[in-house]
Amino acid sequence: MSNGIDPAVPPGGDGCQECLAGDGWWVHLRRCAECGHVGCCDSSPAQHGTRHFEATGHPIVQSFEPGEEWFYDFRTREVGRGPELAAPTSHPRDQPVPAPADRVPADWRKLVR
User: According to its UniProt record, what is one Pfam family this protein matches (predicted)?
Assistant: First the structure.
């Protein structure tokens, strides 16, 4: 592991771990580059990706969206590139956005940042 990134660690699932454990929903997903935790983005109501950083100090996430490879460093607030992480590198392409579909309220656009 180097500077908050462990390329060998696989993602913790296909969706936000905390939202799935409760009754939440998300807009986009972020993957912790250190431990593989998958959390929801800051546009999502619960912002579990940022909360994971605050709780663990793991500073770097990668987008967990299909076709996106960028990394974000919470310490510097900079977006950049990084090494290839263990597969899979995104949630399934057929997963809706926002998700999970059966939990997303009809007025979801009013509820996001």
Answer: zf-UBP
